[in-house]
Amino acid sequence: MRFENVLTGFIPEARGRDGLTLAVLLARQTGARLTVAAVKPPAWGPPGPARADAGAWAAYLDEQAAATLDQARELTGELAGKEIGENAAYLAYTHKGSGRGLVELARKRSADVVVIGSAPGGGKDRIALGSTADQLLHASPVPVLLAPRGYADEPPAALERLTVAYRRGPGADAAVKRAAAIAAGLDLPLRLVTLVLRSGRPARAEEEMLARLRDQAAADLKSAARGHRRRTQVEVEILEGRNVAQAMRAGTWLPGELVICASSDSGPLRRVFLGDTSIKIVRAATRPVMILTRQP
């Protein structure tokens, strides 16, 4: 899997800067072309009781989109330097839903990944899923990369390691294969982690169950890592906790970490579709999370 075209949706807010910062980092490290999009609503008519001229309302929307892209262009230049900033594509796209607009644009621009920031309301260094992410995470034809809130405040200099949230199954095995290809292409180490959750049963039964889960997880991770060590450095780790959030806190996370999740095996082929566990991982992660499309 290669990144040749990185698409990011930008709005003139903190979450827009977070997404753009992550997109620039990825484009710079992979050598990909960057496309920055401002999705604007269709000019069906002005809001409110005052029915202003439809042409004036359309012109206003165009002006807002142009101002947004000017801000994105300036910020991209600051983040990536003149070369990437000037070679990036900046475009306005009309759609009533920002996420669905990015889905359409990803197809039209042959994007390899769509990058956005966290929705408002989430905590610092956390990812909240809003309407834009929801639309992308149920329909995108390419992987979706989510930046935590505040990512632009202290971004890492580069990606340092890829971590795959692994649970044995066809989707997760395909995700490991794709992640290993990305890691090898970027000369990054790859880590596979499996979450082992405690059940709250009586102590003896709990320990017996955890022992079985640990053994199974260790065997699954060893099997998943087999064959990929020829291409890149691979390590495995079991993270334990009473729930997903606690298990995620048990891990060590580098500043330049990127977490990768597989789409649900029950989702449509070649689309992103987030399952229940992956949603919990996204919300608990303190680093960017990429959700891959489901492969046949």
Topology of helices and strands:
Elements: E1 5-9, H1 14-30, E2 33-40, H2 54-80, H3 82-87, E3 89-94, H4 98-108, E4 113-117, H5 131-136, E5 144-147, E6 161-165, H6 170-186, E7 190-197, H7 203-225, E8 234-241, H8 244-249, E9 257-261, H9 276-284, E10 289-291
Parallel strand pairs: 1-2, 1-4, 2-3, 4-5, 6-7, 6-9, 7-8, 9-10
Antiparallel strand pairs: 5-10
What does this molecule look like?
The chain is an alpha/beta fold. Helix content is 41%, strand content 19%. The protein contains nine helices and ten strands. It has helices spanning 14-30, 54-80, 82-87, 98-108, 131-136, 170-186, 203-225, 244-249, 276-284; strands at 5-9, 33-40, 89-94, 113-117, 144-147, 161-165, 190-197, 234-241, 257-261, 289-291. It has a ten-stranded mixed beta sheet with strand order 3-2-1-4-5-10-9-6-7-8, with helices on both faces. Helix 1 links the parallel strand 1 (5-9) and strand 2 (33-40). Helix 1 (14-30) crosses helix 2 (54-80). The radius of gyration is 20 Å and the shape is elongated. It starts with a strand and ends in a 5-residue tail after the last strand. The model has no long low-confidence stretch (mean pLDDT 88).
